[in-house]
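Please review this pair:
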Amino acid sequence: MSTRAPTTAAAATTTPFLWGVSTSSYQIEGAASEDGKGPSIWDSYCRQAGRITNGDTGEVACDHYHRYAEDVALMKTLGVGAYRFSVSWPRVLPKGRGAVNEPGLAFYDRLVDALLEAGIEPWMCLYHWDLPQALGDLGGWAARDCAFWFADYAALIARRYGDRVKRFATFNESSVFTLFGFVMTGQAPGIVDRAMLHRAIHHVNLGHGGAIDVLRAQVKDASLGIVHNIQPCRSATPAPEDVKAAALFDAYWNGAFADPQLLGHYPALLADLIEPYAQAGDIARICRPIDWFGLNHYSPHYMKAWDGNPLGVGWGPAPDGIRRTSMGWPIEADAFRDTLIFLSERYKLPVYVLENGTANQDVVDDKGEVDDPSRIDYLKSYIDALGEARAKGADVRGYFVWSLLDNFEWGSGYSQRFGLVYVDYATQRRIPKTSFRWYADLIRSSAGGGPAIA
């Protein structure tokens, strides 16, 4: 049903490869109640006892709201061509709709202008999980109206920034914030209700389609996409019940959003579950032409049958001998390569990797430096795998490290560090890590090219 044009590996070889870094609003901005910002569902979730490691919150985070100029200067030193960040919906619309908050809008004006002055292309994501609490009180994504509130918010963003920003993503990782927010726990709003999950999936898809139409109509030369977290879902054992569980989770995790948005249908395992919440014409509203596929990828999932949530699915052990990050995620660069090839073949869109990276238990040494060789090893292996995917015909045009800064890592609070830059949260001092210098050298040596295509 989509009218997007097919792409080829040949096109990728003639398009400059884009190196970047990514962050998100709630994870770095802080200033959670300053300058008219309204509360988000994550502000509320963090105040609930036992939700976040060490009781951490995003109240201050990396104080990027006040220190954005320093962070842009770091990006300029790094040499990235682009920066993907998100807008805090409740910062610009404190109630989620209605009256706008000019100081919040002005913050993103300053950020965008600073990026452009530094020669860094802004990639603006409309939604990275921090729904205004006022809309959460009205049902949030489980309410069909939320799709239309989102489109109205997209129109505000388009009008304000479309003269300078051309790259927009509608959502980041819809599968994560719906699955963990509505059935598997660990994310705001912290509800366990399977029917609400299915409503939320459909309404997020509707919101995506509506926002794409608004951005396309209002932003000249817009380049539009969405960011999906695509990870192979493998059975932890050969047991039939575990094989079935892995297939079901794959439908939710990898297919519930990309398939209706790009192929015009829900995965077969989900279609009947979503159907009660769909109205005539909804699929046409969802399946709108976009220009690129944003990929976040870290590792495969190993799944098993489990009765601890309404889906009957849980995490099983990875095979013996596979290394893991400090988050416990398997390190398997081959799965990244295969995912890139799969996406290019299935959806026939240029792919930009908008998150990839690893958490470490980084520390400042006696010299005041942060040496993180394991992060360098991780990034090198995954970037090499990206080159292998390109050699096999995958149309991959960019790679963004998660993350520029150590930050608030959702349920893990500040206990996990993903950044190329170390943040001392007590002083807000930024310390570029060894991986920062390694990535800067890689970007300089690429001279506008990407990982080699054999």
